[in-house]
Amino acid sequence: MATFVILSRISPEAIDDPKDFKKLAEAVSEKIKQQCPGVTWKESYATLGRFDVVDIVEAADPKEVEKVGMIIRAHGHASTETLMATPWKEFLAAL
Predict the structure, then answer these.
(1) Is the per-residue pLDDT at 12 higher than 90?
(2) I need a surface site. Which of 2, 17, 57, 68 has the fewest CB within 10 A?
C-alpha cells in the first residue's frame, strides 16, 4: 500500500458558521467511505497556514485516491493537493 498526503483548503463559501464544518466533514467522510473502499484513513489534522486540513491515507490504487480528492472538492467545497509519500527510511534505502 502506498501512502498519500491530501492537503485541503476549505472555500470560505463552504459554510456560514464554523460549527457547521463538522456536519460537512461527516458528510464528505461518509461519501468517501462508500465510494472509495480501497482507501484507508490513517490520520487527519487541522492546520494553520496555507492548508486547513491534512489527511494521511493509504491505498493500493492511486485512482482511488484521485477519486477521494474529487469528492473532497465537489462535496467539501475545497481545493486539494495530493502528494505520494515515501517513509524516510525506505527512501534512503532505495538510494
Answers:
(1) no
(2) 17
pLDDT digits (tens, 9 = 90+) for 55-72: 999 999 999 999 999 999
- Sign for the CA dihedral angle at 29, 30, 36, 42 comes to positive
92 alpha-carbon distance from chain centroid = 26
When pLDDT is averaged across residues 27-50 and rounded to a whole number, the result is 96
> In b/e form, how buried is each residue of 15-36, taking b as 16+ CB within 10 angstroms?
beeeeebeebbeebbebbeeeb
Amino acid at 85: A
Q: According to DSSP H, which parts of the chain are helical?
A: 21-35, 62-76, 88-94
The total number of structural domains that make up the chain: 1
Q: Which residue has the cell 490504487?
A: 61
